[in-house]
Write a structure and sequence with these properties.
Length: 363
């Protein structure tokens, strides 16, 4: 009776065979009382979705086929980021047919960063894969990312779309942006816009995302000493719909987030290094300008006597006001540095945050 039902599903529904194998693979682990989070190399695939009703099912078929061939316990987490089309209905149908599919629906569109954050919070696998829902990322590259992570003992592997299927202007802008970010953060990554990534779950559980910070996951991960690799992956043309998350109008926000990330990577634990350096620069500039003005007045007094000293006026000169202003700014920046240091100590002590991250211990 059991095999008859399975054969019927396989013949009637194109996805039946894939769904059945996926469910049975995970069922073998759940039936033994194990949670997917407790199984070595278990995978959580996170897919943000925003108005991709025509791309979801093809992507699901490809994903499930690849994951079943890898023979690893897995879950696929779709995050519906406030879609206004039938995306949620398609996702709900997949969830009904395959319980390895989880669906999170946002009340409105919160953006790709929020979608990834929700997926990270819900993920139970030891390893996490992120991939776009538009079908441009190739699920067949997931085994290559996993091999790179295991063979090189990396913690984080990101895809690099070598032959990108995008307009020339967009490729040029992307390359320029990646070069600027690499120089600013001292982490050389050729393609930060590729959503196909694989990393250990323990990494993202310690990260808090906001703004457009999902683009800077490698930078945020590198701040805790994570080993990162980049693997060339296949890039495919979009079959249906148009890009939503890659709009050029997001560029100003990305630039601001780059400034934020640069600050977090360099000065987060020691704000005085930034504000103290600026305080010294402004204060010394003001002191030097004031000293030069005072020196000129004394010089005129030496060569012209008291009459020359009184004749050379500096009290009504803008440079004297500039000197006083620079010194005042320096003092304010110094106070901001002190406040920043106090806030950081409160942050670490009240939240019991570690000041170090351990890779492994040989006891």
């Amino acid at each position: 009776m059991h095999m008859t039902v399975v054969n019927y599903i396989t013949k009637i529904i194109p996805l039946g065979n894939i769904i059945y194998r996926s469910v049975m693979l995970n069922y073998q682990n759940y039936n033994q009382g194990e949670n997917i989070m407790d199984i070595k190399n278990s995978l959580s695939v996170i897919v943000p979705v925003f108005n991709e009703e025509n791309n979801i099912s093809p992507l699901y078929r490809e994903l499930t086929d690849v994951l079943v061939k890898m023979a690893l316990p897995h879950e696929i987490i779709f995050i519906d980021d406030g879609s206004t089309d039938n995306s949620y209905k398609v996702l709900a149908d997949l969830h009904t047919a395959d319980k390895t599919v989880k669906v999170i629906q946002f009340r409105r569109n919160f953006g790709q960063t929020a979608a990834f954050a929700a997926g990270f919070d819900a993920a139970q696998g030891e390893l996490i894969v992120t991939i776009d829902a538009d079908g441009q990322n190739d699920p067949n590259d997931i085994p290559r990312l996993l091999s790179a992570l295991q063979e090189g003992e990396y913690d984080f592997v990101t895809g690099w779309r070598v032959n990108r299927k995008e307009p020339f202007i967009r490729r040029i802008l992307s390359k320029a942006a990646n070069n600027i970010i690499s120089r600013s953060t001292h982490l050389v990554i050729h393609d930060r816009g590729c959503s196909l990534k694989l990393f250990k779950r323990e990494i993202v559980k310690n990260l808090r995302l906001y703004g457009q910070l999902h683009r800077f996951l490698p930078e945020l991960a590198s701040s805790i000493g994570v080993k990162i690799a980049e693997v060339p992956v296949n890039d495919r043309s979009r079959i249906s719909g148009k890009s939503k998350y890659g709009s050029i109008t997001r560029t100003p926000r990305v630039v601001l987030d780059l400034i934020t990330v640069t600050y977090l990577l360099t000065f987060f634990t020691s704000p005085m290094r930034l504000f103290g350096s600026m305080a010294i620069f402004f204060s010394l500039s003001g002191i030097i300008i004031g000293a030069v003005l005072a020196g000129l007045k004394i010089y005129h007094g030496i060569i012209g006597g008291m009459a020359g000293f009184q004749a050379y006026q500096i009290g009504n000169r803008p440079l004297l006001l500039l000197a006083a202003l620079l010194i005042l700014i320096g003092i304010q920046l110094l106070m901001m540095g002190f406040l920043g240091e106090m806030i950081m100590r409160i942050y670490y002590e009240t939240h019991d945050k570690p000041i170090y991250h351990v890779r492994q211990v040989l006891d």
